Amino acid sequence: MKCPEDPEALCGQPIGQYHCPVCACMQVACTPHMCEPELCLLENCDCLPEGRTKSINLVETEHLEKIGQLERLLRHQAEQLEEVLRTNDQLQARLAESEAENDQWQKKLAEVWAEVASLRERAE
Asked: Which of 53, 101, 108, 115 has a CA between 20 and 30 Å from the CA of residue 31?
């Protein structure tokens, strides 16, 4: 039996190392799945020596579940942070456009005031 998790599918995600949500072995995004016999939660996994099955106690299972929850939360927060950064980049671009437009209007306003001053001088 082999773990169905595919860390290679996570290329481009804001993830480095993480615990596999299926077998609990430590993985690195964008690399082939690695299995660690001392951590693996899968019964009769290919990583175990022949004839050996894995037994893990309840406390270890609970800790691994909490680690998995924390890793999922961190992934979610990383995705939210990326969205905030994208939005910030968009807002910065809009601000730059607005500032350029404001500069153009300021120049036009200066031209209008110069024209007004010129017309006043002629009128006097």
From this structure: 53
